[in-house]
Write a structure and sequence with these properties.
This protein has two domains: 160 residues, Aspartate Aminotransferase, domain 1 (Alpha-Beta Complex); 276 residues, Type I PLP-dependent aspartate aminotransferase-like (Major domain) (Aspartate Aminotransferase, domain 2, 3-Layer(aba) Sandwich), CATH 3.40.640. The protein contains 14 helices and 15 strands. The strands form three sheets. The chain has a seven-stranded mixed beta sheet, with helices on both faces. Strands 1-2-3-13 form a four-stranded mixed beta sheet. The longest helix is centred in the first third of the chain and has 18 residues.
Amino acid sequence: MDPRQDYRDYLWAPFTQMGDLAEEEPLVIVSGDGAVVTDNLGREFIDGHAALWLANVGFRRPEIQNAIAKQAEQLSWFPSFGGMSNNIAVELAKRLVMLSREEEMARVFFSSGGSESVETAIKMARQYFHLQGQAQRYKIIARRKAYHGVTYGALSATGVTINRRLFEPLVPGFRHINPPYCYRCPYGLMPEECQFECALELEELLLFEGPETVAAFIGEPVMGAGGVIIPPDGYWQTIERICRSYGVLLIADEVITGFGRTGEYFGGRHWDLKPDIMVFAKALTSGYLPLGATAVRKHIFEASLGHWGDGREFRHGVTYSGHPIACAAALANLDIIDAEALVTEAREKGQYLKERLATLERFPVVGHTDALGLIARLELVQDKKSKRPFPKEDLTGLWVSRQLLKRGIILRPLGDVISFSPPLVITREQIDKIIDVLSDVLLVLSGE
């Protein structure tokens, strides 16, 4: 039996053009170790994307495997509805509140993944204002190129046009502003001219919509699937100031940036961000089991307090909220992050990756590189001076990623941005291998 053929015959995969698989070989991974994965043919690949932004502690960690097995023996599952829960969910909630003390988080609500956690945050923001007697504050402001998930509320906040188009009409009440995409500044400004116009656009939109109608602004500290857009210093401070000035809640989507990815425990700490709501998933378990979480500050939680029958409780939840086996995996994962100082490792290795990526700017097809911790980007261009992109129909980023795959490297194309998000346990030698192989591919692309 060939699992690649079964993939073609039986699986409908996410974000995949299944029609192409009649001619192209799918990649079926059967094992992993550290930052390396192996497919069903025995070929090894350095995973430069941590599976999907999330395998922070790497593959095949016995600490997490043992925690999962032990918890399965004790209690496989029990719900968290109606005043019940399980001891492991309670322990993880406390751990996350302690980890987010800088952000002043007070309570944690569990779900099964990132989209659900964002959905939860949006509902929390809307309910908060309903309970304040301000039901007219329902609008959510997000950014173009933002990625917040695929459920309908999360998708409505998402600003990646191609993800939205075939599912419209979406949930009403969502608005979008420009992202802090400095390499392709939407205002045509040079860095030295920037006055954070893309952040000030939030205030303009608030005044246009009426700030009394807006519940929250949601943003990723570093924008991931929209092209790894790293904001300049001062951007988030301006966003937060505007939110506070108009009483708008601030939601930090830390699904990708949380738990060490950027060289800080949470991405917002690079800018001393103090959101009202934080959203977690992915590296919360390093992908060993699905789990999401939405954390809130005290005032958000206390708005819902009351008594049975008054309708103030948060009438939202998913079956597997606080799943004990997933929570056990998360606790073991967080233990590894702390014991091995992986946040510091991400900061130091990230600087090394940034320096190595900068050497690739010698190629005429590389317009821009940047990194913050172990999340990074390389943008391909047809002309470096004018920043002219390759024609969309050329699928240049996809071509590069496929050439890398043939050479044993997994990197993810986001259009013509090649994104990097390796496990935090990646070695410098593995980073060197990625850069060396990428250099060979860029040499071919450049026609040199």
